[in-house]
Design a protein that fits this description.
Elements: H1 3-7, H2 16-87
Length: 89
Amino acid sequence: MELSERTGITVKTETDEDIARKREQARKMAQEKARARTLAKQQAMAERIAAASEQLLAGIEESNASAQEFSQLMSDLTVNGEQVGSSSE
C-alpha cells in the first residue's frame, strides 16, 4: 500500500521546468517588490523635499517682510532725525 493510499495525501512530482518556472516567477515578484519599495521611498523623499521647500519659502517671505519693515523704520527714523535737527536750529 502506497503512502497516498493510506493518508489520502498525493505526492507532488515537479519537473525541472516547473521548478525553473516557479523560481523565475519568484524572482520577478521579488524584483517588483523591490521596485515598489524604491518608488515608495522616492515618493516619501519627494514629499519631505516639498515640505522643506514650503518651509524655506515661508522663511524667505518672512525675511522679506522684515526687511521691508526695517527699511520703513529707517526711513521714518531719518525723517524724524531731520525734523529734530531743523527744529533745534
